[in-house]
Amino acid sequence: MESDPDLVLAQALVEGEFCTQDQLRQALGEYGGLATRGVLDWFGSFLIDRGFLSAQELRDVLRCINGSVWQCKKCMAGHLVLLEQMTETPRCEQCDGELGAVEKRDTKKPRRADRFTASILRIANPNRFDAGEKVGAYEILDVVGEGGMAVVYRAHDRLLHREVALKIFYTQGRTAIQDRERFFLECQLISRLKHPNIVQIYDWGSEGEIHYYAMYLVQGRSLKEIIEHEPADPRQAVGWIETVARAAHYAHTEGVIHRDLKPANVVLGDDGDVRILDFGLAKAVGHEFEAFRESAPVGTPRYMAPEQLKKTSDDVDARTDVYGIGTILYELLTAERLFTYRERPELFDKIRNQPPAPPRAKNPAIPPAIEQICLKALAKKKADRFQSALEMAEAIRKFLAIGGPSSGRRPAAGD
Asked: Residue 351 above 90 pLDDT?
């Protein structure tokens, strides 16, 4: 009996310790929304592009499963092929075109989601809902984003007659109890946070193994989407970052450390406000559930602070989020990643030991004062950073008051 290539790869990534289950789910979470819009080729390329896996690590795991990436000669879609299962020339399941082995991806060719993506997401989310189906008081409209353990939908609240973002989480298997507890911990953490620049949760509930919560539906673009085009105007960038820092400081005063602040988790709404999303990896200070005492680093690798690289989260505090905010500012200013690397150990070594290249070396239009703010947030030692997100926000406000126009944001309550 043939094995599903997608499942074989997913299992090999975890069993070979190329990544943890949480990291695989996190990668799927980022990838899912893009895959549903058909803008990527295959999941392996995404893992490399986003820093979850190096090219060498992917080659290693493919070698372990005797797999190869082939491409359709007609529609250019990518497919994972297990060579030991081949009995004839494989064909594309999208257009029935002939597949051929490829060594390098031609970036000039059209890029699209392929069978690999659809299958691995289907394995992770077997109970995906279609438009018109109902969950609790909500009617599904369409998919906003899809990940390893959850799908986010645009949905209609049939009681209050408004559109919401509905995150639906499916639990199964050996980790179902812990996954369910983690999901409801996320609900509890977000529900504690009442701030205009943190996405608000409205409601949550369960139906059997299906768990969900409804939250404010943000219409806009993530900072990641903005960065992909060009560097932001420096003063506009620090205006957004001031707002993010004040919102993060509020969360810290409520005992919540985000731990995964990055451009993809900050959205610039059509109303001009920026809002923090996704507290799925958050740490509740002082009462972290015993089930969630990590034995591996938690976060997105390229945005991790040095203290996040340890096996426990004991050293993670508000200054860890200050570092995350610094990485967002760095990318906004330069439209480049903080560090480039070939292998994961190289990335972690740079995070621990290598100072980042000065932003002004990449974009001379950046005012020196903004560069200083950015680099201070990115200090290796927590004691050398801003000691709170509020302190960083106040440094930015001082710069804007002296050296530039206001950010144009709406002041948050309590500013």
From this structure: yes
